[in-house]
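for the writeup, i need someone to sanity check this before i put it in the appendix. the sequnce is what the collaborator sent (i think, or maybe the updated version? ugh). structure was predicted straight from it, no edits. if anything looks off just tell me and ill rerun, i have time this weekend
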Amino acid sequence: MGQKKRTFFSFIIFCSLLSFLARGESASDNDRFRFLELFSKVINLIETQYYQEVKIKGLVEGAIKGMLDVLDAHSTYLPEELYSQMKIDTQGEFFGIGVEVIIKDNAIMILSVMEGSPAMKAGLKAQDKIIKINNENVFPKKLEDVLIKMKGKLGESVSVSIKREEVDKLLDFKIKREVVKIDPVKEILTKDGLLVVKIHHFQKGVSEELQKTLKNYLSKKSSKKIKGVLLDLRNNPGGLLDEAVKMAAIFIEEGAVVHIEGKDSSNLEARYIVRRGEKYLTIPLVALINGSSASASEILVGALQDYERATVVGSRSFGKGTVQTLVELNEKSGLKLTVAQYLTPKKRRIQARGIIPDIELDQFELTNDDIQKKKQTFLREEDLRKHLENKDKVVIEKNEEEDKKFIIDKRDLQLHGALAILKAVSQQEK
C-alpha cells in the first residue's frame, strides 16, 4: 500500500470518528479531539511501520471491538456471521448447536442449552466450560470468535471438549449443526387439573401461542376443568420485550409492566398493558423460575409479583436488567449496545439482583442411588466480567437452611414442588 493511500485511509478514519464522536460543546471536547488524534496516529504507524501488510478492515474492526470491550458484558460488535444470526433468532429459528455462552473467570461457559437442540441431545449442560473447539483451545479467543467457530456450516459437525464440575477429565462431544425450530410453548395437564405451560423463549408470537393454549383449556366450551396454571420459565434466557409485556397483559388487568431507565434516570419510560384479547385474572397462577431465567422472563415475573397476581417459586433469577438495542452499521455488521435498564412496576431494579421468589424452592440433582442430593448452582449476572452494578446496592441474603426448602424426592424436584404449591393455592382460592 502506498504512502498516499495510507495517509488517505488514516484521514478518512479520523474524520469519520470525528464526525461521529465529537458532539456538542463541553469541557471534554478537547480530550475527545486529543484521543481521536492519537487513534489516527496509531493507525498510521501500523500501516507505515508494521512489518507485514495489514488490511484496514481488520484494524477498524479490532478498534471497534476494543471500544466495546471497555463497556458492559452485553455490549458487543457483531460481524457478518453473528449479525445475520441475531436477526434470525428472534423469529424462533436458527441453525447451530443451540447453546448460549458467556465469559466467566477467563473461560467460555455455557449459560443455557436450548430445548431440543443438538447440544441438548448430545448431553451438554449449563455450567459446562468449553475448553476446545475442533481440538483447538478457545482461550484466550474473543467470545465472538468462539461463537463463529461453533456456528460454522449447516449440516457439518463440530467437536467440543468441555470441563464439567467434579469430572476429572475433559468430556468430548461431536455435534452436528442443525436447523432448530424453537417451539415456544409446550403444555401438559396433570391428573389433578393443573396446567403446566413451559415457555422456552420470548420470540415473536409467543404471547399469541400462550393465549391460544389457555383458551383451549380455559374457555367455557372446554370440557377440561382447570384448577390452576403453572408458568415454567426455568432456563428461559429472555427475548423480545414486547412479548413479555403482551404476556403480562393476559393475567393483569391494567398498569405498567416495566419501567425503562435510560441515561436520564429522572425520565422513565413505561410499557403499559394494552386492553385487548381475553384475560385470565382469577385463575390461580404460579410462576417457576431459576438462575437461568433472564431478561424478558424476569420482566414478566417481576410484574406478576408486583401486582400480586402470581406466587413466584424456585430460585433467584439470573439478574439481567439491561436493555440492548441492535444497531445496523452496514448491511453485514452491527452493534448490540446497552442503552437502558429495566425496573419492575414498583421500580425494583433487576440488574445483578434478579427476581427473588416468594417461596424458595431449589432444584437438586439426584445421584444414581437416589439418596444423596446435590444442590444445583447457577451462574448469574453479577458473576459476569464487566457487569453493571445494581444502583440500589441491595444485598442478596443467602439462605442456607435447607430444612426450610420444599423438596420432593422426584426427578424434577422443582416442578413437583411448584405443582404442590399451585395445588395448595388453588384450594385456598375456592
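The longest helix spans residues 29-49. Residues 27 and 301 are 44 Å apart (CA to CA).
thx in advance!!
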